[in-house]
Task: structure prediction
Amino acid sequence: MTSPTETLTYSVESMSCGHCVNAITGEVSALAGVAAVAIDLATKKVMVTGDILNDFAIRAAIVEAGFEPSA
Result:
């Protein structure tokens, strides 16, 4: 098994609670290649780690969860 080799970070300014965290984590975790999703509500950052990450798909998953990501 290979270890995750890439981390992408997104700012999601509209996150404010545990429900936001759960919604984004659920959508992003379901994507192929994603090994982990870490969210810091204090800094409004979503960090996605995995082997082969698809930036477009991750952004779309965050939008699907009801939020607008920025780089």
The chain has a mean pLDDT of 93.
